[in-house]
Amino acid sequence: METIKDILKTYKWLIMLGVFLLMFLLFIFFAFTRTSEVSITTNITPTPNLSEFQTIQPQISPSTHEGLEDNPETLSGFQSKQLLGNGNIAYTLDSGNPGRPNVTIVSPNGDMLFSRTLSTKDAPFAGVSLFTETYGQPGRTIKGSKFYGPQAVVYIYPMLGIAFISNPETDETFEQQQFPPMSIDDYLKNYGSDISQFPN
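Above: the chain's sequence. Below: its structure in token form.
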């Protein structure tokens, strides 16, 4: 009889593809169904400079990584498009939090290199316990986020191309990140700019 661990190991790529497609479809669904809200706030934290996202050109075959199906500029909530120095393009989309927008970085040929999606009240993400139950123990956890504070923990699954930032005490997930599978060091170098203190 196969154990859950054996099943996850055997169907790892299928599960990853299913999770990615589900998250992408949820993103598209909520992007088109979100009603326009106007709010006036003061002392808004500025949008971070997207040049901090130094991206690498991953070695990915088309069967394991899909490009963007829709032009982010046509999505509801589109905010900006920025050409990065390496030819990649960074798109920012409204996340409901003016200080931290959703971000998608694509290569010149349209492959998604990085995606950051924030949890919202209307579409909260699963808690830490469900992530670890589904994916097992992360490759690395690092405590402390410049944006979410010292109690936040970054859970990195580098070979699955998934990371999420959560508060394990409240089982609340603040954001999810997707990227091509890579080493922990490459993740930290390219997408770890929010981590408040790098591990030794």
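The chain has one domain: 4-35+70-191.
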